[in-house]
Design goal:
CATH architecture: 4-Layer Sandwich
CATH topology: Phosphatase 2c, domain 1
Number of strands: 12
Number of helices: 6
Number of domains: 1
Oligomer: single chain
CATH class: Alpha Beta
Strand content: 15-25%
Radius of gyration: 19 Å
Order of helices and strands: EHHEEEEHEEEEEEHHHE
Mean pLDDT: 93
């Protein structure tokens, strides 16, 4: 799930989506069936960022993309495993039976916001500047090259692309987390861009998907996207952010 931003965000996200998928698939294909893909995901994100910087057909100085990618592996011992890798503020959320999570949301990723302690420390150490969220109009915290805050005002601390601010601590290195699911989890995972999460909290998204999931995964994720679009119309009028979402069933429901 890739959410481009900037003038060439569409080209960046398309290139990154294709390249990361190819790199991870190739690495997995050349490895034992039970190989841990953590290193493959990290290498794919960072090497794709390097490729993008060298690609003269896409100017990614002021354009980039967030990313949340998942390798989901089925095992024969009633366990499935997911490795979630992400940069930026696209998010993965799960709901299932484990640890009494029936109908409850569990974030599988955490947003890389510039004003979170770990991210802000890295950016400031590299010479960058972070402005706090705008209380009056609800704008996000942003990364700047200079203390006058003229460029670029990036609303995330990690991304692929955005090479203008790579020198001040904005990195393409993903966080990667591993999760295990029982075969009978009867749950699902939602991966979505921040256009979904801007006005819908993780739990509200899970509640909405659960309501329509009996009609199928496509129906559930379509309702999530439509509800997100309606929230943007209500709050922002004609303007709205990119809205993209994927829903994957876990356990036995994967095959329904």
């Amino acid at each position: 799930m890739y959410d481009g931003h900037g003038a060439l965000g569409d080209k960046v996200s398309q290139m990154v989506c294709q390249t990361v998928t190819e790199k991870v698939s190739k690495a997995l294909g050349a490895s034992p069936p039970d190989a841990d893909p953590t290193a493959f995901l990290k290498e794919a994100f960072e090497s794709t960022d390097d490729m993008l910087k060298k690609d003269k057909s896409i100017d990614a100085e002021l354009s980039g993309t967030t990313a949340v990618a998942m390798v989901y592996r089925l095992y024969k011992d009633n366990k499935s495993t997911a490795w979630v890798a992400w940069v930026g503020d696209s998010r993965a959320v799960w709901s299932g039976k484990a640890t009494n999570l029936v109908g409850k949301a569990k974030d599988l990723s955490h947003d890389h916001k510039p004003d979170t302690e770990k991210e802000e420390q890295r950016i400031k150490k590299a010479g960058g500047f972070v402005s706090p969220p705008e209380v009056e109009w609800g704008g996000p915290a942003r990364v700047w090259l200079d203390k006058e805050m003229t460029l670029p005002g990036l609303a995330m601390a990690r991304s692929i692309g955005d090479h203008l601010v790579k020198s001040v601590g904005v990195i393409a290195k993903p966080d990667v987390e591993k999760y295990e699911f029982d075969e009978d989890e009867d749950g699902f995972i939602v991966l979505a861009s921040d256009g979904v999460w801007e006005f819908i909290e993780s739990q509200k998204a899970i509640d909405l998907c659960n309501k329509f999931l009996p009609k199928g995964a496509t129906e559930a994720v379509t309702k999530l996207i439509e509800t997100s679009a309606a929230k943007w119309r209500q709050e922002e009028g004609d303007y709205r952010d990119d809205i993209t979402a994927i829903l994957l069933r876990t356990g036995k429901r994967l095959f329904e």
